[in-house]
Amino acid sequence: MALSTLLSLLALLPAALAIKPRCFEFDHPVHVSLTVPTFNVPKFSNSYESTAFLTASVSRNANLSSLVTGEVKIDRAFKIHFQYCEPEKCTRAPDVLQVLSHGVGFDRSYWNFGDSEYNYIASTTGHGYATLSYDRLGVGFSEQADPYSEIQVPTQVAILAEVSKLLQHGKLHKRISKPKKLVHVGHSFGSLITNGLVAASPSLSDGVVLTGFSQNTSWTPLFELCLGFELARTNNPARFHGYDSGYLTWGNEYDNQCAFYTYPFFDTHVLKQAERIKAPFAISELLSFASVPLAAPNFTGPVLMLSGQSDLPFCGGDCTGVLEGPASVSPFVFPSAQPFVSYIQPNTGHALNLHYNASAAYEVIHGFLKEHVH
Ligand SMILES: *[C@@H]1O[C@H](CO)[C@@H](O)[C@H](O)[C@H]1NC(C)=O
Ligand SMILES: *[C@@H]1O[C@H](CO)[C@@H](O)[C@H](O)[C@H]1NC(C)=O
Ligand SMILES: *[C@@H]1O[C@H](CO)[C@@H](O)[C@H](O)[C@H]1NC(C)=O
Ligand SMILES: *[C@@H]1O[C@H](CO)[C@@H](O)[C@H](O)[C@H]1NC(C)=O
User: Fold this and answer.
1) Any atom of ligand 2 within 6 Å of the Cβ of 329
2) 4, 146, 291, 368: which is deepest, by most CB within 10 A?
């Protein structure tokens, strides 16, 4: 966009947006080296085949382990797209940097959604933190790697680990100085990646916030059935025409609502906007969902797990007794966390940031981090 167009657009923005955080974006190649399983999934040639695959994978005789045929080594760099933000009026870099990992169906704009009401980054920088959000591999401006093999949960965890190492050494970008503390915040699938990170590499994080999450994956099929598996490129040719057939999405805004929202606790314009900017997911990400270890006995930092009361994918529609209580595994996943705290955000579904009252949930997060990370 030409600078003059940009300036005239800026002039049209309401005053509230003028005090946005100071941000910049960049790409960086992130090198990872790991071994991942190979899956025996025939490439989809249309949405009938991908839908049939979904039906088969949630049927009572399904056995996803039987799809694994071997393993393959990944040893290369992937282009990842980042956005760094800091408080507008800061003279030196904030002590605490929050690394934000978004979930399925979104890109990094999940953290930066619309005006201040839903905008996590604006709220967070307002509290004096710096943030680094990024498009997950395969999403947004990050590389469209092979969705049948390369884009798996362990790959995403390895990318987050490498990014965290670079940040700890002040080497990700010349304008991002070494933070005193690195905190990791996830939503949904991004929480899974974040949990996997501190399970594998506890020294890479000084604090963790897992939103829209639990370690109980019993209800994943409900989520998948709400979504449906359409080829992204046929669902929305205008946006996804060049995408490989292994990139999937759901049908329409009502499927989106079914999986991510609890009526009537959201603004339907917000849902429509989320639908307009939705991001595809890769088939091998879903197949590798349960493939990284989550138990983090050596992580001694603070952990906050915060989910919407009616979260469908991770709580089966009711988080009471899932995040904590006798049937919950979460405290055992983080036995050494100092402390482990769970919190249920009332009147909220899975897309926590996009329900009414999201900004009050942000205050719960900031309050926790102010108390436990300094
Ligand atoms: C699922 O498939 C794996 C690998 O083929 C096999 O070892 C396992 O016994 C199967 N499980 C069931 C319940 O059939
Ligand atoms: C998931 O939660 C349900 C209900 O609280 C419980 O019965 C089940 O054992 C849990 N499963 C796992 C793997 O934690
Ligand atoms: C935790 O640390 C101990 C001691 O360093 C090590 O033996 C163990 O493998 C670690 N456990 C995990 C799950 O990383
Ligand atoms: C809004 O969220 C805050 C923080 O979780 C909570 O205390 C309050 O009850 C919520 N309000 C409503 C109307 O849900």
Assistant:
1) yes
2) 368
